[in-house]
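Standup notes
- DV: blocked on the single-chain target, sequence here:
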Amino acid sequence: MDGQHTDTGNNEGRNVVLSARGVTVGFGSKVVLDNLDLDIYRGEILGFVGASGTGKSVLMRTVLRLLPRRSGTIKILGQDFDELDEPQRNALDMRLGVLFQQGALFSSLTVKENIQVPMREYLDLPQSLMDELAELKIRLVGLAADAADKYPSELSGGMIKRAALARALALDPELVFLDEPTSGLDPIGAAEFDELIARLRDTLGLTVYMVTHDLDSLFSVCDRIAVLGKKRVLVEGSIDDMLACDDPWVQAYFKGKRARSIVPQNGRAGDDSLAQDSRGK
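- DV (later): unblocked, structure below
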């Protein structure tokens, strides 16, 4: 496809929550993303995938304004950060939640205190109410109540992921960014975390942007996939769209040896695929 951005699905009329147009990001003489376009639609779980070093996390950090871009526009929930004043930017930030790859919990704070960090930054609430809200988020992500007073060093890898997700949900965001949420988890723990993400999307009405390498996640919970390569989005759509794409890397990724146990022998995704119709999208 020679790096052409191809969207094979029909997304006409859908509510765009995040829109990137012509985004270019580089470091010194190296261009990582070049004229990239991407849309994310309300209520979907988008799996964002690509070879290591292609810039998946760079794009996420650029969207979150943690890295500068050289050109292009990014609109989130219909707003362009570049056009907002500081109070408006803070208000928009409160509608976003982020889970970084290693959890990024503060080691000197308990789980409850970690969850309260965004509350302290953006809200003016009494301690008693913040405690209640933190305990609610802890239950929401499936952690035991006694996890509230534990420190990150006392948690398993799966518990750290859930605690970090609880912090990402602290301000009841509409759009959640997940960077490799199942990395480092065993297959059972990863599957349980995928189920948790899907359940939270359905119950809270979240939109989820998930950077991942996990084929099981892509097949089981993602409504749509976007593949990053050649410094832009190569193709986006369902699993069937990925299987039909003629790009060599996409073919190797979705039809390679590690995918054979997941992809049916007829080469098409089955009833548990990412077909959006099955979710009423």
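- Follow-up: Confidence is low (pLDDT under 50) at residues 1-8, 265-281.
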